[in-house]
Design goal:
Structural class: mainly alpha
Number of domains: 2
Number of strands: 0
Radius of gyration: 19 Å
Strand content: under 5%
CATH superfamily of the largest domain: Tetracycline Repressor, domain 2
CATH class of the largest domain: Mainly Alpha
């Protein structure tokens, strides 16, 4: 086995998803993942803290993309600013990665511990977006409400994007979901 080889991160992620699907998350060991990827266990642990993190790698980069886009958005309407943040998130999920992301999502949904981890990551992401909105002058509770709403929009659009047979880009789905949210809230406000 090679001590280090280019692309080991991607190979480890692919090997993990395949093994988790074949034999279950709990039954899969780091040694099996490393062997399938053609690297040592040491290489695995240099790349990921544990086998759970192999599925959540990159969440810091996703957060940075969204927060930077919120900070740099030319929009003045806070909802448009949040939408610009989500547009940046779509860059993190290119179309050629959709099959991997679909397989990963199936595993996360099927395993309660992984689903819980995913939700914790989303709460952290919402907190970061709220902070970025506050730094742009959005007050409270509006910053938190908008941040959590934006992350919910992201989750709903993402769940649609990974569905079998779905072919619309994530960015389009996010914009459509934001529009649906605005219409829903507008209809509720008008009805009162």
């Amino acid at each position: 086995m090679a001590r280090w080889a280019p692309g080991s991160r991607d190979r480890l992620q692919q090997a993990a998803v395949e093994l988790f699907a074949e034999q279950g998350y709990e039954q899969t060991t780091v040694a099996q993942i490393a062997e399938r990827a053609g690297v040592t266990e040491r290489t695995f642990f240099r790349t990921f803290a544990d086998k759970r993190e192999v599925l959540f790698a990159g969440s810091e980069q996703l957060e940075a993309l969204i927060v930077d886009a919120v900070a740099g958005s030319p929009a003045t309407d806070p909802v448009d600013v949040a939408a610009d943040g989500l547009d940046a998130a779509a860059q993190f999920f290119p179309e050629d990665r959709r099959p991997y992301v679909q397989a990963r999502q199936e595993l996360v949904v099927a395993n309660p511990a992984l689903a819980e981890r995913e939700q914790l990551k989303m709460v952290t992401l919402a907190s970061s977006v709220a902070r970025a909105l506050r730094e742009r002058g959005v007050g409270e509770p509006a910053a938190r409400l908008l941040a959590h709403s934006a992350i919910t929009v992201f989750q709903v659009a993402f769940e649609t994007w990974v569905r079998a047979g779905e072919d619309r880009p994530l960015q389009q789905l996010q914009r459509e979901t934001f529009t649906a949210l605005r219409e829903t809230l507008g209809a509720r406000t008008a009805a009162r």
